[in-house]
Amino acid sequence: MPDTSFPTSIATPATTIDDVINQLNAIVEWSKQNNSRMGYFAALYRKVTIQVKKGIEDDFFDDGPRMERLDVIFANRYIHACYQHQTGKTPTQAWVRAFDETERWWPIVLQHLLMGMNAHINLDLGIAAAETVSPEELPNLKGDFDKINQVLASLVSDIQKELADIWPLLGLLNQHLGSVEKTIINFSMGKARDAAWSFAETLSPLSKEQRQQEIINKDEMIALFSKVISHPGFSVSLIIKIIRLGERGTTRQRIEILE
C-alpha cells in the first residue's frame, strides 16, 4: 500500500544540487521513520551527491555548472521514481524491481545497493547525460562523466567498512579472501557507467519519439537483468541467506551506518 506520509516536498523536481541533497535527506529520514529498506540506496546516493557537490566547489570538474545540471537531471529521475512508487504510480520497470525488493526480508544490503545501481546507472544515467547537452556537445561531456568514476571509487572503501559493520563476519572474510564486496561494487559501477555512456551516445541524436521507444526497450532489458541480482542461482542464494541471517541491527540502524 502506498504510504501517504511520504514527503510531498520531493514532488517538485530539484533545480540545484542543494535541492537534490535536501530531497534525498527527506527520503532518508522517511525511510528511517518507517523502517523502509528504500533508505539503503538513498543514504548511499546522498553521500555520492555530497561528494559531487564538493568536487564542483573545488573545481575538480572541467565545467562545474554543466556537472551540476547533469547531477540534477540524473537525481530527479531517482527522486521522481521514489515519489511515483510511494503514491501509487508506476515508475520505470527497473525501479519497480528495485523497490519491490525493498519489501522482502531476504535480500542483503549489498543486493539492495546493486538493485538501485542497476536501475539508476544502467538506465537513468545515460538518459540524463543525453538530456544535459546537445548531440554536438556530448563528446565534450565525456571527461567529466569519467571523473565521476573517481568520485565513486573514493567512496568504495567507506562502503566496504559500512557493510562490514552490518555483517561483522565480512571483515574477517576480507582478510582471507580479499575485499570481495569492494571488487563487486567497483566492477558493477565501472561496467554500468561504461554502458551508460554508450546508451547516452545512442539516445542523443534521436528524436523525442525515437528516444522514448529506445528508453522503453532499455528499461525492459535492465528490469530483466535485475533478476540476476535478486535471484543469482541456488549456490549464491544460499550464501546470501547465510549473510542475511548474520546482518545485525534494525533497518533504521543499517541506514544510519550507511549514512
Question: What does this entry look like structurally?
Answer:
The protein is mainly α and 259 residues long. The chain has one domain (8-258). It is 77% helix and 0% strand. It is built from eleven helices and no strands. It has helices at 17-33, 38-57, 64-86, 93-101, 109-132, 138-166, 169-177, 180-203, 208-230, 234-246, 251-258. The radius of gyration is 18 Å and the shape is globular. 40% of the residues are buried. The model has no long low-confidence stretch (mean pLDDT 89).
Poorly predicted runs: none
Secondary-structure element sequence? HHHHHHHHHHH
Net shape: globular
The helix content, as a percent range, equals: over 70%
* Biggest sheet overview: none
Oligomer: single chain
Overall average residue pLDDT: 89
Q: Radius of gyration over alpha carbons?
A: 18 Å
Structure summary, number of beta strands: 0
Distance linking N and C termini: 27 Å
Derived structural class: mainly alpha
Q: How many individual domains? A: 1
Please give the count of helices. Answer: 11
Strand content: under 5%
